[in-house]
Design a protein that fits this description.
Chains A, B: Keywords: DNA-binding, Transcription, Transcription regulation. Two copies of one chain form a homodimer. Chain A has about 180 residues and is mostly helical. Chain A has nine helices and no strands. The radius of gyration of chain A is 18 Å and the shape is globular. The mean pLDDT of chain A is about 95. The interface of A and B includes residues 32, 108, 109 and 169 of A. The structure holds a DNA duplex (30 and 30 nucleotides).
Chain lengths: ~180, ~180
DNA sequence: CGGTATCGATACCAGCGGTAGCGAAATGTG
DNA sequence: CACATTTCGCTACCGCTGGTATCGATACCG
């Protein structure tokens, strides 16, 4: 199942360093100024190595985010509490250095790039939506709406103010969405 | 008050054509591929003419959006109905061709550009927030939160699906935010 | 050993946002 | 009319960016 065939020199295991350098660079310089050249040199790696592993800057950032955010943690059976936990978890993730900016950047790249948009949907939208559907027991459209509200609100606040949402506003958001799972 | 002094050749009144060409180009090609060169040639104008009127691509798009969206229309005195009207108005505006994509693009440019971010805040955030505060009679922080939820949700849906929100979801959003003005 | 694939390095390309400099065309003023 | 002033379109240019091509060197497998 794992590596049935591998002729030739194996890939050096520097994915973690590349991901770390990506987040660090985006955090320091913002999405646009975090060029692939800079990310590569921050990771101690040649630019060609990055392009051998990911086909574009957008997909590199998406993979980096996927690695950094990880799957939705398991939660209690109570739907309302589960949604509150999920929202708090998402707000904390987006607030981590570099993640919010990277997300906003790759998101807006995706508006003009159908291929990247599909990567985003299959790599983020679908897994979290399915996990939430499982936990909350709601139809797909309703869960998609909740995702739009939560992620959209968090990203908008992050982009405008440069700071993640305060706990107080996250609580307000949770209270607001409560009726949708009742 | 108007043009007290004007030596030299006056500016040709092509702002409207430039704005129209900008929206059209963004709608057809997306924010990134809507280059200033293309916008200029679509408007029948030299690129230098555009840069003589706006200092950057981001500020051109912001001015174009400001012109296209316009001020929040007056509304009834009932806060709840006023908010519903405002949300529906915003959803309709963001759904118009080019506007949603332009907004998402300039928004994410602003994440990496403090100057553009300030233009965005003073040109959009402040006026609509103040108008809403006036109508809804709520404190600034609460109105800012509402703006984050509404604009964030609309832009996220627009960016992911490429289509504006359906009326059904807009109604759900309105119902959701109802408690905040009660 | 040979075959294969990755490595860093370098050079390169097209396209982008933005600027400089040109002569020509409009204006108001004397 | 001449003149100063400003904008016009045009062309050329700059630095940077995402992305590609090519190279010899290196690491693995059989």
């Amino acid at each position: 199942m794992d590596s049935p065939r591998s002729p030739g020199r194996p890939r050096s295991s520097v994915d973690a360093e590349i991901f770390a350098a990506t987040l660090r660079t985006v955090h320091e310089l913002g999405y646009t100024r975090a060029t692939v050249d800079r990310i590569a040199s921050a990771a101690g790696v040649a630019k060609t190595t990055i392009y051998r592993r990911w086909p574009s800057k957008g997909e590199l950032i998406a993979a980096c985010l996927s690695d950094a955010v990880g799957p939705l943690p398991a939660s209690t059976g109570d739907p309302r509490e589960a949604m509150a936990t999920a929202i708090r978890w998402g707000a904390a993730k987006i607030g981590q250095p570099g993640i919010g900016a990277a997300f906003a950047g790759v998101f807006t790249d995706a508006v003009s790039d159908a291929a990247l948009r599909e990567v985003l949907v299959t790599q983020f939208q679908d897994p979290y939506r399915i996990a939430l559907q499982d936990i909350l027991g709601l139809p797909e459209k309703r869960v998609l709406f909740i995702v739009d509200v939560v992620i959209g609100t968090l990203l908008h606040r992050m982009g405008i103010s440069g700071e993640p949402m305060v706990d107080d506003d996250v609580d307000t958001l949770i209270d607001l969405l409560g009726p949708l799972v009742a």
